[in-house]
Amino acid sequence: MLLQVSVFVVPAFNLPLVIFSGFFLNLRDVPTWFKWLTDVSYFRYAFEGLVLSVYGYNRPNLKCSEIYCYFKSPLKFLQEFEMADRVYAYDVLALVIWVLVAQVSLFFALKSRIHQNQKSKDCRYGFKDFILDCKKMTDPAQTEDEGHSGEMHHWP
């Protein structure tokens, strides 16, 4: 069930990040109430980093066989996309932060999932030498009534 939900949630989460990355919509045209989406969009930082690595760093003029080429100067291209004052290192840093946050989130999600699976596995199949019932593990009075030592087993 969770896998089926994720097939819908992941694209729905990524779609606004792609739209407000600066690729489809220029960042100056983004409404003010959506500006925060451009700041958290990892697509934006990847796109900016790509454009800066190709057209930045004082690249020479592009070759053009036409009489007039609007984007002959790489600086003109960067100015048109409002990236002339951007710093490549900030884009790389933002992407590294995104990866770290995603990895930490994934770690805790998997840890929680493993803990839930381990808890249900222990209740069904027993714990060490004797079979336990989930109700017995949570109700010490029932454990004492059935002749056990009365000690409470806690989950790790």
UniProtKB/TrEMBL annotation:
Entry keyword Nucleotidyltransferase: no
Organismal lineage: Eukaryota, Metazoa, Ecdysozoa, Arthropoda, Hexapoda
Cellular compartments per GO CC: membrane
Top-level taxon of the source organism: Eukaryota
ABC-2 type transporter transmembrane domain ranges (all copies): 4-52
GO molecular function: ABC-type transporter activity
Keywords from the UniProt entry: Membrane, Transmembrane, Transmembrane helix
Transmembrane segments: 7-27, 87-110
InterPro entries membership: ABC2_TM (IPR013525)
Localization: Membrane
Stretches assigned to coiled coil: none
Source organism of this protein record: Coptotermes formosanus (Formosan subterranean termite)
Membrane topology: Multi-pass membrane protein
Pfam family for this entry, one: ABC2_membrane
Major place of residence: membrane
Protein name: ABC-2 type transporter transmembrane domain-containing protein
